[in-house]
Amino acid sequence: MISLELYKILKTSEGDLPLDISFQINDGEFITIEGHSGAGKTTVLRLIAGLVKPERGRLVVNGMEWLDTGKNFYLPPQKRNVGFVFQEYSLFPNMTVYENIRYALNGKSGLSQVEEAMEIMELEQLKDRYPLNLSGGQKQRAALARAIVRKPEILLLDEPLSALDSEMRTRLQDYILKVHRLLKLTTIMVSHDISEIFKMSDRVIRLDKGKIINEGAAQEVFHKKYISGKFKFTGDVLDVEKDDVVFIVSVLIGNNIVKVIASREEAEELRTGDKVMIVSKAFNPLIIKI
Amino acid sequence: MTELQPIILSLELAAVTTAVLFVAAIPLAYLLAENNFKLKPVVSAVISMPLVLPPSVIGFYLLVAFSPAHFFGGIIEKAFNIRLVFSFQGLVLSSVIYSLPFMVNPIQAGLESLPHSIKEASYTLGKSKFKTLLKVLLPNIKPSLLTGIVLSFAHTIGEFGIVLMIGGNIPGKTRVASLAIYDEVESLNYHSANIYALTLFVLTFLILLTVYFINGKYLKAGRL
Question: Which of A11, A189, B49, B212 suits A119 as a labelling partner, its CA being 20 to 30 A distant?
Fold first, then answer.
């Protein structure tokens, strides 16, 4: 059980922004912090890890105090047993995968934990490689293995998958879930990928401008804003071509090219490169220029 | 008469100076790279002054400071029984001061170029600042360390003004190669001067060549 109350002034490009949050996390829970960039998500993780100090606050982890500004008490990051996975992997370039993971331990004890972490992350084949010779996904697996080898009381993941392509992302999500299931680690992940949040989290905390604006299961939190009777996507017009009596508009949505039928009047308004919104209501997709 | 002595003395001075500098510069560079304190510009300016000041200016002030008649020189002489003026120890100390920026600046730049997060990753894995410096930061700036070592070594071999003022050109004691060349030319022994000069020339070229070769290899291997 982790309970925290933190207050810190964030220096942003739009001036000072107070980060003022408090919440509790149950043992083994998987929490996602979601919010716009600059909302203070990463800072929350850094505060928990002790990499930055808050102006005011209290942090109690499994009955042990890590921080209490009232008593002027601050446990340095070295003394807090956390696993931190950074967005940019942050493996040590001078060490192999094995040495990176091994570095987390003290002395010769716990070598079996290194083997275990490598096995969970399927890194045996890569153990003698240097980080430079790894792909993004492999680096992040090594970073995860390094973060879990000490069996941390809390695992902090700072947008760990944001630099990966969607296929790699899905695979890494499965690795993270596997770790969470096997080791029952209390985990906090920062993410703004909604499908990822739905797939991974027990609970979502939505952060906006330093405040918690919503909190709960993913379905509840995103219900109002994102789930409605219709679906809509925005994209770019690639091509408009005539086909007998109708026009076919090719639209790029994300990485998919979607073909939509349009009437003459609709098609006349559209040019290649236009931004459009594709909306479906009661089974008939409408295409609307935006 | 050409002797080996001044060349050996030059190499000895450069080696000792570089060793002392290496040990002294790492904490200094770490302090400057890690912290932002009010007096940092002042400290940086003082360290870099030998880059721009004529050696004779530094030599003059060091000569005054080292003199047993003055405060600093007096203390050193009383406490350690070392006279810094006209002695090898004095040469080492003045060379250390004179070559300080050549060691501190590359190491500081190297430390500053490392991403913050690898240091933080090490802290979150429970490792102290000292262990992080030793096992993570320094091994990842090997090219900077090598640059610092070689520049300091080469710069010390090339010193003239300061060694002349502090050392006083005593044969076998403070008469290093650069001074010997000057002496030989003054007494019109061009042949001897040429031997000293050529030795220094070839030596420096070989040292620098080795550095660029090794650093190039590091870059190609892409480890750092």
Answer: A189
